[in-house]
Amino acid sequence: MIRRFDPEAYHLNLPLRGSAGVSQADRAEVCQPWEMQVFNTSKPFRIVNGPLRMLTLAIPHTVLPVAPHKVERLLARRLSGREGMGALLAGLLTRLARESGALRPADKHRLETAVVDLFAATLAHHLDTYEDLPHETRTRTLALRIQSFVRQRLQDSDLTPPMIAAAHHISLGHLHRVFQTLGHGSTLAAWIRDQRLAGARADLADPAQRTTPIHQVAARWGIPDPALFSRAFRTAYGTSPRDYRHHILGDTTARHRPRPTETRAPLSHNGDGVPDGQRSGGGPVPALP
Fold first, then answer.
1. Closest by Cα among 39, 45, 36, 40 to 13
2. Which residues are paired to 269 by β-bridges?
3. Would you tell me how many other CB atoms lie within 10 Å of the CB of residue 240?
4. Mind spelling out the 3-state secondary structure of 26-67?
5. Sign of CA dihedral 38, 43, 46, 49
6. C-alpha span between 50 and 207 (Å, rounded)
7. What angle do CA 253, 218, 239 make, to 5 degrees?
8. Tens of pLDDT along 215-268?
9. Three-state secondary structure readout of 123-157
């Protein structure tokens, strides 16, 4: 039955809530949230789970650049999805699940390649055979590591290409060549600027941050120079940061401006029973009947 219906693939399970267990190759382990497990559909396996939310990835045997006898050593083992290559893979899978409806057809091939590369790199990391991966796989994986590194540090004003190259122990020229494999269509510095501007624009449109000064929003996203931020924002979006916020949120100051109140002075009487403010002319007021 396995041979007849076998998709000939490796499956990776990533529980997000609840637990799941896989039994295969004389090994049985239970995964908690953000722990991953791999099993081979061509061999007998058993899955045990209760109520849970889980992502499952299927990778055909033929596209994985890791020898089957090496993958065998990791079947049904728990692999961390919170650190290292595993964290990159888990992060990409959850983002794809969340944004799958918004993906363009042109993105799908690139993202499929990225998933296979990170899956292979995760296995190779645990097998201590990373250097045995094809050069193209290692280059693309390095590019994804760099991209993740940058996204986590966009709010650091010291984030620059030289700093990124030093953190990854590569030359500046190699950094730029690796970054181009991601297909963003821009230089690394330009991509960092665009990501920072996008983050600032989202904050400017956030009603909860309507009273935060614009220069503080800019500084939070790694652009401490208000004039530079304003020029870059206008170039990117065709309007100033202030006008953009006003367009999205309306007049944020009018809602919080103190309203004038009308005060009425008490009317006084001069002993004749008629308030001063109701006297006519300057003469005496007739007595009431």
1. 36
2. 275
3. 14
4. CEEEEECCCEEEEEECCCCCEEEECCCEEEEEEEEHHHCCCC
5. positive
6. 40
7. 65
8. 999 999 999 999 999 999 999 999 999 999 999 998 644 444 444 444 444 444
9. HHHHHCCHHHCCHHHHHHHHHHHHHHHHHCCCCCC
What pTM was computed for the model? 0.77
Tokens at residue 66, please? 């890791």
pLDDT at 289 over 80: no
- Helix spans in the chain (H): 2-5, 68-71, 84-99, 105-127, 135-151, 161-167, 172-180, 188-204, 214-220, 226-237, 241-249
CA pair distance 118, 147, nearest whole angstrom: 13
Say which residues have a Cβ less than 8 Å from residue 93's Cβ, sequence separation at least 6.
14, 55, 57, 115
**Pairwise CA distance, residues 249 & 138, whole Å:** 45
Query: pLDDT grade, residue 109 (50/70/90)?
Result: confident
For residues 86 and 92, is the Cβ–Cβ distance under 8 A?
no
CA distances from 120 to 130, 143, 191, 203 (A): 9, 15, 27, 37
Question: What distance in Å separates the CA atoms of residue 18 and residue 23, rounded to the nearest whole number?
Answer: 17
Token readout for 77 is 């083992």
261: tokens are 């109140």
Per-residue pLDDT at 4 = 56
